[in-house]
């Protein structure tokens, strides 16, 4: 990516006929650092991961705008030119709150965000029993976001998500996405795509409007690789559990070992210095030295 803003870089990719965004889900600073270190050109801040990491709660509408904006701002500013796509749930209220969400996300450095058509007491898109607002309320949310973006002169990408597939079916979902497109949304997002055939169909039905595929493994959507999604015509794929899933497994195994053996038994390479280097230690030491500081003149590695 160039050194432009995350939003402008995201728009360049979406406007490129061959452009494609593959964004792993991150939920905190360490997971974002790991994804950046792995070479990803975009990140996705998962709402489920934020609820789990910030509150230790399930994705049931627990997070507020302030929770989500604060987490997104921290992640986005680790690498401001790298696009961060963020969950914005329902927009956190009526048109005034949706506009406020848009403005706060834009000023926080978020490159794009999605707003959905669930009621305020929402739940993860891959849980059953979702309740929806009516079409007029949904399009009002999208219109409020688009107008707020225009009012502040931001390039932030507005992504319209619908959760209507589970209860109202494909045709109503398509109608809602078309209405969101007509209201000015930059991109569409059909949550809970249930087959490869449906994935191909929605791209065809809404072409050339760019679409996002949400790849939650072991959820409602069959497993598709990033390349498969691109070949089907999607412009973006997100993997919300890409970091929190492995982290959960590793933490559970490590804690079970500690409980059983009295010692975590970490790999020898997992030193404090290694962790801090992942989080920018060397860059911080260099910054201090270049400014004339001497706080780290003796180095940071332990002497043995």
Automatic annotation (TrEMBL):
Reaction it catalyzes: (2S,3R)-3-hydroxybutane-1,2,3-tricarboxylate = pyruvate + succinate
UniProt GO molecular function: methylisocitrate lyase activity
Bilayer-crossing regions: none
Gene3D superfamilies listed in its UniProt record: Phosphoenolpyruvate-binding domains (3.20.20.60)
Species the sequence originates in: Penicillium oxalicum (strain 114-2 / CGMCC 5302)
Xref: InterPro entries: ICL/PEPM, Isocitrate_lyase_ph_CS, Pyrv/PenolPyrv_kinase-like_dom, Pyrv_kinase-like_dom_sf
Domain of life per record: Eukaryota
Name of protein: Uncharacterized protein
Stated family: Belongs to the isocitrate lyase/PEP mutase superfamily.
